């Protein structure tokens, strides 16, 4: 009879640990989802800010090109030539 009580108490204890494990798992899932949501919000905000900055830069460049077309052409040529030489040098090394 005593052995049956031990078995029953052991089974009850196991069920209690299973319940606790499920509670811990649920809390971990909730915490994970909160963090994922926070990360998504932060990335969305950073993306918006980057988009706004990019538009500002494009507008500034567009204005500069309209006001100084010859200078813009020379600068564009110089940047293109420099990048071409740098890339040629990098790929030639390999």
UniProtKB/TrEMBL annotation:
Recorded coiled-coil stretches: 7-49
Keyword annotations from UniProtKB, A to Z: Coiled coil, Membrane, Transmembrane, Transmembrane helix
Domain of life of the source: Bacteria
Transmembrane stretches, start-end: 72-91
Protein's UniProt keywords contain Iron: no
UniProt keyword annotation of Transmembrane present: yes
Molecular function via GO: ribosome binding
Name of the protein in question: DUF883 family protein
Species, as recorded: Leptospira perdikensis
């Amino acid at each position: 009879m005593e052995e049956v009580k031990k078995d029953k108490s052991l089974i009850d204890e196991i069920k209690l640990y299973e319940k606790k494990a499920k509670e811990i798992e649920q809390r971990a899932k909730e915490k994970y989802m909160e963090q994922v949501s926070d990360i998504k919000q932060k990335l969305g905000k950073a993306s918006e800010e980057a988009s706004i900055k990019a538009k500002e830069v494009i507008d500034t460049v567009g204005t500069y090109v309209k006001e100084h077309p010859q200078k813009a052409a020379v600068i564009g040529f110089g940047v293109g030539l420099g990048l071409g030489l740098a890339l040629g040098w990098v790929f030639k090394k390999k």
